[in-house]
Amino acid sequence: MGGSAAAGKSVDGGGRAAQRVPVPEARPFLDTFRANLKETFFPDDPFRAVVRERGFGRRAAAALRYFFPFLEWAPAYRLGTFKSDLIAGITIASLAIPQGISYAKLANLPPILGLYSSFVPPLVYAMMGSSKDLAVGTVAVASLLIASMLGAEVSATENPALYLHLAFTATFFAGVIQASLGILRLGFIVDFLSHAAIVGFMGGAATVVCLQQLKGMLGLEHFTTSTDLVSVMRSVFSQTHQWRWESVVLGCGFLFFLLVTRFFSKRQPRFFWVSAAAPLTSVILGSLLVYFTHAENHGVQIIGNLKKGLNPISVTNLQFTPPYMMLALKTGLITGVIALAEGIAVGRSFAMFKNYHIDGNKEMIAIGTMNILGSFTSCYLTTGPFSRSAVNYNAGCKTAMSNVVMSLAVMVTLLFLTPLFHYTPLVVLSAIIMSAMLGLIDFPAAVHLWHVDKVDFCVCAGAYLGVVFGSVEMGLVVAVAISVLRVLLFVARPRTTVLGNVPDTNVYRRMDQYTTARAVPGVLVLRVDSPIYFANSGYLRERFTRWIDEDDERTSAKGETGVQYVVLDMGAVGSIDTSGTSMLDELKKTLDRRGIQIVLANPGSEIMKKLDSSKVLELIGHEWIFPTVGEAVAECDFVLHSHKPGMVVDGASHENMV
Amino acid sequence: MGGSAAAGKSVDGGGRAAQRVPVPEARPFLDTFRANLKETFFPDDPFRAVVRERGFGRRAAAALRYFFPFLEWAPAYRLGTFKSDLIAGITIASLAIPQGISYAKLANLPPILGLYSSFVPPLVYAMMGSSKDLAVGTVAVASLLIASMLGAEVSATENPALYLHLAFTATFFAGVIQASLGILRLGFIVDFLSHAAIVGFMGGAATVVCLQQLKGMLGLEHFTTSTDLVSVMRSVFSQTHQWRWESVVLGCGFLFFLLVTRFFSKRQPRFFWVSAAAPLTSVILGSLLVYFTHAENHGVQIIGNLKKGLNPISVTNLQFTPPYMMLALKTGLITGVIALAEGIAVGRSFAMFKNYHIDGNKEMIAIGTMNILGSFTSCYLTTGPFSRSAVNYNAGCKTAMSNVVMSLAVMVTLLFLTPLFHYTPLVVLSAIIMSAMLGLIDFPAAVHLWHVDKVDFCVCAGAYLGVVFGSVEMGLVVAVAISVLRVLLFVARPRTTVLGNVPDTNVYRRMDQYTTARAVPGVLVLRVDSPIYFANSGYLRERFTRWIDEDDERTSAKGETGVQYVVLDMGAVGSIDTSGTSMLDELKKTLDRRGIQIVLANPGSEIMKKLDSSKVLELIGHEWIFPTVGEAVAECDFVLHSHKPGMVVDGASHENMV
């Protein structure tokens, strides 16, 4: 590397411009601001396809294709593709009808709403969504959340009309929030729900939903409105005399049937349709059983009348007046974000399998629009549930047309088949929900988290316990709080390591990881693995001092020369703020008093800019900043060996020299 | 580096163990946990001095010396040192007496409390504090906060006894919280108040305090209890007919005098005592003026009677019962943390000048204890104010003995001299506060922030505007929120850069910073500057894909070969969680489908451990992980040139080959 020759030049103050770390030219503030804004909010450059086109007409067409992806695939749609989509659509419809009714009951809403919600939203999604595999429908967790959040203030049994209207309003707000997040390019907020948090949260929610099903399974009439384990257990065991054996037997039988079919389909993926058709089969069998045995007179509760006909318009039912608007807004916010997280995650997973691209923010606009339009037409919150989308994928869907098929099948049901559900026993719905929920408890994932990352496991366990023993919202807050705390702690307590030279090379490595790396006498090479921010500048100052003290103790015990140069490897320092530059300023002054020279290696361009504008560059001296640790150490080594140690230890004379 | 020879070996699957990146051995979970805990909470290894000693007696003595640093310096204390401390102590006493009275008025507390608070706490600090320069006393910002927070629920004029007791209780809680933060080693919470936040917050608080002084300066009897600019201006201009010219003239005169002396002392640091003595001089001059002109009968308000005697015991006055306990707790929490931040920052700054070490957590215990004991003896919240400590430092203090001298001087005042303050006009106190506050508005610091770091400037401006137009608490919340958001955004949107080879070396540099760096055909080297966490794993996956797409577009436009290897430089990735490992897993699978091989360079030991336990290491293949980018690219280059491109592009055959 020619270290000594180069170092000789730097002592006389020049001639080494080529090896200097450049200070980037100052760019106008607005340019930097615009570039940062783009990188933060448009990292995927979504309008590339639009901007590439020339002329207004072509651009408008490209923009239309951007917002309505079906314009892209519909013109080239062929019969062969349709056959695949038809099969997939009918399969998911047979799942959507019983699940829709079940989840609507879970949300304390009229069962018919589950069917309404499987009619309009899938049509909207088919036009606007970019996923080919997402199957639209209601989800259990959001349904439960609606029941618990709205139910805390408005009783679904005492004031069903208000409760229903609030559910529409919450759906409207959820849609508005989802679409806004997409339009404002704030999709990354959803990323703050980490995978670990979602595993714990979903497991907890599934547990809670299963517990709620004890009402239906045991045939109880009264039940707690709380969702936590303690309240539910107290409610169940305080009325053991009310348990109905007919209900228990029927429920357990169907649950067993559903679990066996699910297990079978999992083992034999060709027979995916067995588990997909099982819920509808259960509903039909259960209804026939009740119809012929008149079990409804023996304590087996049934759905009762379902109104025939398509979705009534509900836009006039939205409540935009106090005191309930805030409640609907809060419910919409939380359920909307959770539903969105599931929808986006599902869309991305399947896109990855089939190797196409999903634009998260555009998906948010699609899901948001579908909920807004849904809230106008008597639907409640929908998203892309994982289980149904997996069935869609396994059934061989090719485009979003499978959603249209499902929607049409539901339409036929609404128009002609609703009376058939009159005798469907509620306990079958409970069994359907429970069997779906048991699949959401992902125990192996939790074990995996424990093995790979203990903090992630804590996030997961926190979310689970928060949901099961507190409430769904509490679990969410706990999970997000631990996740954010982890990020903050990473920045507040960054790892600092001592680097050593790998013999016979110019390479410097962490001495704790690479056992062959050796320390250079008189030179301490330190590395920081995080940005230097206000949150860690105080810590880093103390930690650097402690490294130097420890090294001094070690060397003085051995009778070697102490530290005379501290080389900071800034390679992993991604950013620095004014607290960070002040810290370097102070560190430089403190080390000067101890006669130790501070040397920086490999700072990035942003760091150089900040050091320059804060005058710290001037203080340290541009000649003490090197592109690599190797060059920095070579320079230190050269100065150490070409002068008497006394001169270097004495800070004043050393400063004069440079 | 012998790249091709080494690469040749790796293809046949072995013999290169020395250059492999080692996977660290699994350590027992509890060991890792303990080590992390130590690094997080005891980064400064505070008990080193204690642990080093042998035998119980010596250890106990060392521990005692640790908690009571005066045991360290007192035995060796000499007369020469005392002379310096005596001068410094008397100087700060002459500042403490008028400031103490002024700030107590600001807190709507009886003026005598300002003197009480300068008697007991300094004695406690002298025993327990480790700073040699900190001068203990009350501060304006905390005083104002007490007035605004307690005053919002309890009126100081209508219910003075309750208000007083709540002030003691708040001080007690502040002390408990400060000491607990120290004992629980949570001192880093204070670090989350960044320098920028403090500049803005202090400036805003100083503005607000000055605005409050308009009451005294204009001689108004009634005044708003709000602190925001709008309320104060409305209050001032709605009662222009109440303005007293005598008060205005007197106030402006003294303010001018104080500012001139301060300006003079700043220019001539030898004459630091001029500005230090100016407040007491103003008080004496003002009192004499009122005494001889009987201005108290012409609308100039005076302090009135001050009780003679030392601090009465107030431990029985603490309120631990609802409904006011929560108010006191909240006030104590906020004022305690703010006072602590100032005290620690001041202690550290002066320790840096004199090159000795301050243990932040131990300081917190000292400040907390002094406030707990203070709350038992009729004192309200004290800390180490910057202005007074600067005077102490300039006056040549050598040890914490100067606090003892100040305390004794205040004791003499309390015992014999309080009647002298009877005629002190309130307007002089207002002038003293205003002149002190104007020094806190650090306009050049704000300009510096703008030049160095725009985000820090936003934090500063947010804190300032929040305090001035909202409330002190709001300013604090705004500042902390922007600061935390910045950290989160740094992690959520990390910078990714393309690295290029510096010709004739093995070194890879950012191509946007080092213009000489050149891309290697067929190999894309990407670098991430942050940990890979849940908050950015989605973003990074998209960003990586976009880099590859862009590179493909560029090369195909030129007719060159497209990307066949993506080398990820993990050198700056300090940590990874399970979302991060899943992202790499997905990325590997996606790139495999495109026939692109993923290669990792320079992962740290923690990363290797996570990759190993999550099986991603197995998926990518240990042979595709290299200690440096240079070696990684050499290997890719070797494979590229020793096989036909077709073989490499075809993912399947390539996988068979490795």
From TrEMBL, chains A, B:
Gene Ontology terms, MF aspect: secondary active sulfate transmembrane transporter activity; transmembrane transporter activity
**Residues covered by the STAS domain:** 513-636
Question: Which protein, by its recorded name, is this?
Answer: STAS domain-containing protein
Record-linked Gene3D superfamilies: STAS domain (3.30.750.24)
Its placement in the membrane is given as:
Multi-pass membrane protein
User: Which Pfam families does the entry link to?
Assistant: STAS, Sulfate_transp
Entry keyword Membrane = yes
